[in-house]
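Hi all, long-time lurker, first post. I run a small reading group and we've been trying to get comfortable going from sequence to structure in the token notation. Rather than ask abstract questions, I figured I'd post a concrete chain and ask someone more experienced to write out its structure so we can walk through it together at our next meeting. Sequence below, copied exactly:
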Amino acid sequence: MDICRLTTICAVLLLPRIATAQPALPYADAPFRGKITADRAQSVPDWPRAVQAPRGAPNIVLILLDDVGFGASGTFGGPATTPELDKLAAGGVRYNNFNTAAICSPSRASLLTGRNPHQVGFGNLQDVPAGFPGYSTVWPKSTASIAEILRDNGYSTAAFGKWHNTPIWEISPAGPFDHWPTGLGFDYFYGFMGGESSEWEPRLFRGTVPVEPPGGFLHGYHLTTDLVDDALHWVREHAAVAPDKPYFLYFATGATHAPHHVPKPWIDKYRGQFDQGWDALRQQTFARQKARGVIPATAELTPRPKELPSWDSLSADQKRLCARQMEVYAGFLSQTDDEVGRFLRGLHDAAPGADTLVFYIVGDNGGSAEGGLEGTDAATALTDGQKNDLTSELRHIDDLGGPYFDNHYAAGWSWATSAPFQWMKQIASHFGGTRDGMVISWPGHTVQPAYVRGQFAHVNDIAPTIYAAAHVAFPATVNGTPQLPLEGRSLLATLTDPAAQTGHTEQYFEIFGNRAIYKDGWVAAARRYAPWEIFQNPIKIFTPNFAQDRWELYHVETDYSEAHDLAAQEPATLAALKAEFDKEAARNGVFPMVPLPIFGAPSPRTGRDHFVYAEGVDRVPPDVVPDLTGRAHRLTANIVVPPTGADGVIVAEGGRFGGFSLFVKNGKLIYDNNTLGKTHDRIGSDNALPAGQVQIVFEFAPDDQLSNMLAMVNRRPPGGTGRLLINGRQVGTAHFAQFGDFTDAINETLDVGDDTGSPVSPDYMSPNPYGGRVERVTIDLM
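-- Answer (accepted) --
Happy to help. Here is the structure in token form:
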């Protein structure tokens, strides 16, 4: 037995003894051990000492990709080549029974705490909070993060990329900031705060301060590349200043979540490789998975759900478009893997030979079907009930993946890339929603050759694994708050023993009422809806008819892919598991399931009808500015026009995929209402603005109540009439078929005096600052 393996095994055996003495964090200041007398010559100094990490504590790197099905990456048999993941796996271990929570925020909350999602307040997405502890999206102090516990034990901590775990009403310049990354244990953060972002024009923060990306897409900017650059800069500086201090680095890409944005050369690598369609691709992936040993030899390929169309049922034009969608996605995943490889090489170059434990988790849920059955070039519009236009999409088929489209592939591809399992993202009842590939690499601490690990594992297992590897005792209290016990189990023993038992024998799953319970090799599961229906038929999702849900039963100890429903043959087992789910649901705060979201959530805008934005205010996030959808309102801008005139944006909210902008072009005033990136309704003045002090007013009067109710039933923003006035004189009017829902514009913001991010109007390039002076903008709800 080599010395590295022996050291690891000894550490595992000693851990229970270490963990019994649970500390209170942060540690108390060390007592002064010098000597103080009235005589300076007789006094002995003693300096305060910072907490030192445990001896032998490694650097820890936690990499998380977004929206990647189990069967998407080449490393796990998929069609997208992932050579960097292959390299890591060659010296580490692969896990083929690793599970997430089936959707973004809950998976991340569980990952970063070692608890279950509802215990951390994230039974739902950050975007749809509800007034119950399991769904509030308010991270409780009783569930301290990995970062906070490691930092209090002498680690440096940093987070990069997607952060989808702060209450939406706290994402504002006023905070509070205790639920931002830097308030939850990370010394440094660089990334975005929402569920998705344009890869070409992201809305970024450094710490809690909004920053603009360095350069634009015309100069080659891409978010994943930028995140790697910034992370490597942090690592190099850390290595230069504190080379002996270990760090915990959380690197969570926005990729491969929609929009699927990637440089064209990566897309073109896959041209023609998906013309066979999703049915055939799934068969091919399954064959590769068997050949590469990443699934058991006894595993079966589950059939296509009846709700999904077969590839052969599509027209020739539909096939051409859908094949291109998958080319874009595969290129996106390969480019992401390439950037992760550059990141890992940079870590090594910054500190060659450093002891570094790497977790590479290939997705926070299964493949995403949120592009609908046909896919889309405007995912934001699709979520608001808009229809696709095949003819229009085919006209710009070769531009998919670029900055001008909010593109997402068809649901058939999410099913194909979640092979061999049933279903996909959102469907927490089935492994297609929860199963993701994972590789752990810790040179010198894993057996060779690397075997595939089949132990049941969950994202909540990562925290205890990290504490075990770092020799850190889990605390009894953090900042005076007693801590909820860890729900996960350490995977450390599996690095050296492919047959090691972790003790993780039970786990519940629940997202939007899709639910399951795993216990002792059995799974009981109830699915309520297909994932694309969350946008098409939300009433179905939020109707609490849980007693009518049909439960399925699988013996996954022998049925890896949940291919054989045994509910009819084993009613007693099913009944016992259903009762166990209810017990776990009650214990973890899952009830009430599918609570109505948003209503009554705290917000700085609650109870206000008058909003003032002074000169220079910008990057105000959408959930703290007034929601103008269907609301009569008046926008007043007081500006100063130079004697020679000036162009630029006076005020804008939103971006390329929806919003409004009041701007000046060629001296003339224009109001542009951008509906979901699909249509632009404009009101403009015929004459140039006069010089000097000018007051501009835009007023919106919604259509009659019946028309607006019909619009809401059809899930479209209501319409109304807008009019534009300059110094009290009307200069234009227009009827808008739709107005509002600007909060869907990929985390774009409200800006005074410019338009940061992507431009609301195609008549200018961002930021297009106004050349005069914008003194004040007020918005009054009427």
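A couple of things your group might point at:
DSSP finds 17 helices and 29 strands in the chain.
The CA atoms of residues 632 and 701 lie 5 Å apart.
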